[in-house]
Amino acid sequence: MSAPGVQLIPSSEEIMKILTRTAAFREGHFVYPNGKHTAHYFQMPLAFRYYDTARVLAVALSRKFRVERDIASQLPKISIISPASGGIPVAFGVRDALNAEQIYWAEQENGKRAFRQYVNQGEINPCIIVDDIIRSGHAIEETVELVRALGAPIIGCGAIVRFTSAPDSIAGVPIKSLVEFDEKYYDSADACGDCKKGAPEEHVRF
Ligand SMILES: [Zn+2]
Fold first, then answer.
1. In what order do the strands lie in the sheet with 173-181?
2. Distance, CA 55 to ligand 1 centroid (Å)?
3. Neighbours of ion ligand 1 (CB under 5 A)
């Protein structure tokens, strides 16, 4: 039993067990459309297809936000924002756990990221940007630009998994994550250890 008021956050090992069990994380020999080779493959929506798993992940991430005084003091008048479709279940789960007032999500439209809700300046509460996985950080960076253009302050940012090659803070706020993953990419087959061993390769999407 934990002390009253103390809410435990699962360890990154426990989160990786959930991701492995749901096949959202796999080990092997993978080739991405850009030609890079890796030994790991994250397909986060596979973890979010189970409601119970989705809930555990989102509640865990929400606890990292709730302990922040700047966030807790502004609840419930905050927005949870997803940069893309993969972050939508995370946004809904975090919203639910924090009882935040608004949810927004962006989509690619004519090659540009835009909010699906076509919001205007002043409509967005101070916001937390969440995603399922942060690989390069580009999606988050573009979303920060969108939010800033609408004049809303960014008070939090996070994902279930963050690659350590991505930024660890953005717009002056630290990026929270449940797993920090040190992913190695090989630019070509020549540089890839699994290719040298002749391991069969699997072509995957991002
Ligand atoms: Zn390879």
1. 112-115, 102-109, 79-82, 127-134, 154-163, 173-181, 169-170
2. 35
3. 37, 192, 194-195
- Within 10 angstroms of residue 93's Cβ, the number of other Cβ atoms is 24
Q: What is the pLDDT of residues 103-147, one digit of tens each?
A: 999 998 888 999 887 888 778 899 999 999 999 999 999 999 999
Write down the pTM of the prediction. 0.92
Look up residue 185 and give its amino acid: Y
Element (H, E) at 41: strand 37-42
Structure tokens at 43: 């397909």
Q: Of 127, 167, 132, 133, which Cα lies nearest the Cα of 146?
A: 127
* Ligand 1 geometric centre to CA of 23 (Å): 21
Q: Decide if pLDDT at 32 tops 50.
A: yes
Rg (C-alpha) for the chain, rounded Å, is 18
How far is the C-alpha of 129 from the C-alpha of 133, rounded, in Å? 12
Q: Which residues of 29-48 are buried (b: 16+ CB within 10 A; e: fewer)?
A: bbbeeeeebbbebbbbebbb
**End-to-end Cα, the chain, rounded Å:** 40
